[in-house]
Amino acid sequence: MASSPCGSGNFDSGLEIKTRSVEQTLVPLVSQITTLINHKDKPKKSERTQQAIQRVGQAVSVAVGRFVGVGEAIAVENEELKEEMGMACFEARRAGDAIAKLTDVGMPVAPLVDGRKTVFSNRTGMVKAARMLLSSVTKVLVLADRIVIKQIITSRNKVLLTLEQLERVSTFQEFVQIFSQFGNQMVEFAHLTGDRQNDLKDENKKARMAAARAVLEKCTMMLLTASKTCLRHPDCESARINKDAVFHRMRFALEQVMEIVTDARPCGETKVLPLSIYTGIKDFKSNVEGLREGLYSLPQQALSDQLEAVVERTEDFTDSAYTSHEHREGILQLCQLARQDTDRLIAAWREALSLNAKEVTEEMELSILKTCQSVHELRRELHKVAVGRAADLLKLHAEHLPLRALKASGGEGNLEAVAEYACTLGEQKEQLVETCRLLCHVSGTEPLEITCIHAEETFHVTGPQIISAAQTLALHPSSKIAKENLDVFCEAWESQLCDMGVLLREINDVFEGRRGDKRAYLSLPRPGKHSANLKTVKAVKLDTEEQSTIAKLGLELRLLTSDVDTEVEKWEDQEQDIVRQGQSMSSMAYSMYLFTRGEGLLKTTMDLFHQAEVLSEEGLQLCSSLHTLSTLLMDEEKVVVLSEMEKLMGLCQQLQMGVRTPVQGKTATFQKVDSSIQNTRAIMTVVTYLLPVCNKLVRKYKSERSSLDSPQSWRDRQLSTPVKDGALSGKNSNGFGVKSLEKHMANLTFLESK
């Protein structure tokens, strides 16, 4: 994209864009305005070019008008946003009208230059209108995003209220009734927070959200069995302790979600990760190498202090009872070597300063290289120790012997044996907690550090919960509910061990340079789910010739996404599953089209294959929705839908297999890119055919059922997220605000600059 006169990033200094959906919704608008501004730099234009520019200006104005209409509807439905939203919509509409006038070749504002008209003679006015439009549209989007936040807060408040009711119940009947309501509320909350997690730009917040949601997911089942056990054995102290711990952890996780969503901390605190050795070494090396840029960049003592802080943290390794003598000695020797090399560097630095040197001397350069090498070796040794211990622990505990023993002794009512095996599990817990702490030191990225901390906390909390559940079973060995409760907590422990194995592989991948920070795209249904099959693919960019070859194919894909968007607009229920899945696939296909132009968020072939795999999975989800719809249809109609569904399923599976097949070499990689885009084109062709067919069938079905159905209000349709089943009642929990606006902003991209 050419440089925008309005700058990149936040267009209004008072607004911070925190989500990918807002950011990506602005991309086509910035692209079109950039096209208009750039054309101003070419004073001579043909009649055809002028008309094309005029169409772009008119397209911007019309799309902004639709966009503003949605924003104004949001303002009506949300009194607290009415004034701000109204002003932002007014500014956006005014700016859109100004751009349409400035690009109107019929306006008598342009003098003749060599017999040709000059559009945009008022460049200052165009830049001003562009700035105003980008700023106001950004503000509308950010204000609409508050609706999503409000939905999550409302959902969380409902969950908290029902949680308090569950904590106070005294009968099974009352518990079953309230827990049923609680389950539906948790499903709604999970959808809302999952969509928000995928949408967050900040990878650290995304990792924290994933951790909090994982706690809530596991605790929901724990809460069910722990509460039932407490109701069945009301006088059992261990059952009460077990239940109270679950409720406490759920409340804490709910509070964490709120901190992330609202970007607030209690008492004005800021969330700061404990400094890891990896971060300490990275900062130390950065300062050492920074001396090449300036000898006076930092005080000499700062380097020594920084290294000592790193060495102090290595005590987590050397002081551990589980670290072997050989590894302990190796770490201590490398720490001493790093100290010596740093001292030599500081001595060479002092000498260079005494000679008034303006750049690093040869001796100083050599010391810089040695110091960086010594701390790198230290990091490598620490990584080997942490990862080696984690791998050994996972192997040692693969058969879950302490858990089996606790289940058996609890079922036999043997309290002495439970106490003995509880000590064994307690020791295992301490080993795992300490190992997670060591992995945090060498994780290599802040999101992985957050995941390590989550694993540490999970082992720390779940261990005692298993023991209290086993004690309850030992006191009531014939209780099926107590046995079921212990099984649930043991499953949570086993699940966390599996998660630790995945975490270990990711840390290894980062250390060996196979992967960096995990990237999630706006279209991903859940993060961290699709990358496993793509590790062997080398991330490369296409060269100019290859880009040119697939450009025509990409344009065909672009036209298909326009057709899908047009068909989607015709549906009455924009939150219907088929519509939502079609929109999602169109968005992903459009990202792939941008890749063929060398634009957008997909930068490498790995990104493209990743996106293609996600698109194929969304296509398979669409097949599921089509199958559900077919059950409501007559035989003839059913045959049509099922026939197209089978075709779509085959194409999605073909695309999925293609992107998962590893290839080597430039030619093979390009062929895989070409094949992926051709398969995507075929998929979108089927989707384009299916959408109007299904729309017609759904309308027909609804008209036949109209006497049984009551119409929903606009507010209920757009802002609520009921949990329902069925092909005709599927609701998208992404929230109304950004999604509806995003759909209207898509119109800005229908006219591409040539």
Automatic annotation (TrEMBL):
PANTHER family, per the entry: ALPHA-CATULIN
Organism whose genome encodes this protein: Salvelinus namaycush
GO cellular component term of the entry, any: cytoplasm
Keywords: Cytoplasm
GO BP: any one term: cell adhesion
Name of this protein: Alpha-catulin
Keyword Cytoplasm applies: yes
Disordered, as annotated region: 708-731
Extent of the signal sequence: none
Molecular functions (GO terms): actin filament binding; cadherin binding
Pfam family, one: Vinculin
Homology family: Belongs to the vinculin/alpha-catenin family.
Subcellular location as annotated: Cytoplasm
